[in-house]
Amino acid sequence: MTSHSGPIYEVNFFVAPDIADECEHRIEEHARRVLLDPAVADCTIFARDNDDQGRLRRVCLHNLTGDDVLDDFIDGPGSELEAQLAAEFGELVEVHSRVLREDQLTELLPEASPNCLNCGARLRGQYCGTCGQRSRSRLISLWELISDAFGDLFELDSRLWQTLVPLMIRPGRLTHDYLQGRRARYMPPFRMYLVLSLLFFVIAFFDPQEELGLLFEPEPAPVAEEEAAEQVQEVVVELDEQGIDIDEDLSGNLQIDENGFRLTLDEDYVGEDEACNVDASDLEELPAWLSRRLTVERLQRVCERTRLDNGQMLKDNLVDNIPAALIVLLPLMAFVLKALYPLSKRYYVEHLLFFVHFHAFFFLILTLQILFYGLSEMISIPEEIAILAIVVTSFYIAIYLFVAMRRVYGQGRIITFLKYIALVTAYSMGFAFTMLGALAIAAFSI
């Protein structure tokens, strides 16, 4: 393993050809002078290739004795020559400086490579400075695979928790910090949005008995028609005993399905043929591009298929389309913010980032509400307390949006409140239209 006693302070001089001799003389004098400084172990001057502007390049390397003298040297002798050349030659000399340290290469196994196996860059420690991959080349264990997958969940200082905590309790903090350039400490915005939205839809709509039906025993068979008719008869008798006059001949109106039976009165009963009749006159006022798609035959077919399964397929298709509809809503609301803050000098993507963070927070709150309500039923928390908690957190969503607008856009309470009302109104309309679009797509994909 190689080492050096201290850092190297490198200064690059880009000199116009007309003053090259004078500058070299100044640099040589500087080198002789700093060698007398006890903080400098050595000072070397050498030439490099000219730059693309034809300027001569001279490099001066100051080998210092240790890190403890670095700051004092840079503020003192190291900056004197730069100030002297700037005062004497002005823009004819350009100076760039940086601090270098000799590689601290740990001893490698005989079969190991001194270069990164991922990108080929030379290794300078445990991790590659170019791509970030760890320097070891051996196969990882099963435990390390699991740690890589779930480590962020259990490390309190991981980016996951550093992101979720301000997302929950500090409205607008993530957006503000991201726009200020403080990004490495947080999860990327769109990744966080996708993860939280996926988590919400899995918890809210995933039915294990439906999706993983093979792992569950079959449910009891539906009630037989004869048994259902007997139950209907018992209900009719009980109503008759209570003085309610109901026609006993209701067998023609008995509809049996997986949910049991439904009983309808003769005068209110609607036959299958009549239920899906679509009047063509209702479609005459639609725009031409829409009327070509919403034909009478197509609407009637959708109606009939929906009645066959009591709308279950329509519901499933709608749930599948909601994530896409919300993604469509994001850029629409960003345009609304752009219109509400025309003088903010912010780009459109900055407004979009605001809504990405807000929707991520929204999904997180809804997920926590669902989990809390389910937990309250398991541990017998009074239903009133569970409902109160959901109501309080729902109000918190509205307050969160207002506070986030103030933090990110920095305007006063009154003007922010007026824009808040306009944004909520536009959001409600946009949400309704996108959900109607999702419903229409779900209906015509049956």
- Overall pLDDT metric: 78
What oligomeric state is this?
single chain
Stretches where pLDDT falls below 50 for ≥5 residues? 105-111, 248-252, 265-273
Q: Give the CA-based shape.
A: elongated
Structure summary, number of beta strands: 6
- Structural class label: alpha+beta
Q: Give the N-to-C terminal Cα separation.
A: 69 Å
What proportion strand? 5-15%
Q: What percent of the residues sit in helical stretches (DSSP H or I)?
A: 40-55%
Helix tally equals: 16
Domain tally: 3
Whole-angstrom Rg? 37 Å
Instruction: Report strand order across the widest sheet.
Output: 2-3-1-4
The largest β sheet comes out as: 4 strands, antiparallel
Instruction: Summarize the helix and strand pattern as letters.
Output: EHEEHHEHHHHHHEEHHHHHHH
What can you tell me about this protein's structure?
This protein is an alpha+beta fold and 446 residues long. The protein has 3 domains: 8-100, 2-Layer Sandwich (Alpha-Beta Plaits); 156-216 and 310-446, no CATH class; 225-257 and 260-308, no CATH class. It contains 16 helices and 6 strands. A 4-stranded antiparallel beta sheet has the order 2-3-1-4, with helices on one face. The chain has a two-stranded antiparallel ribbon with strand order 5-6. α7 (189-205) runs parallel beside α14 (348-378) and α15 (383-409) packs across α16. The two termini are 69 Å apart. The model is unreliable at 105-111, 248-252 and 265-273 (pLDDT under 50).
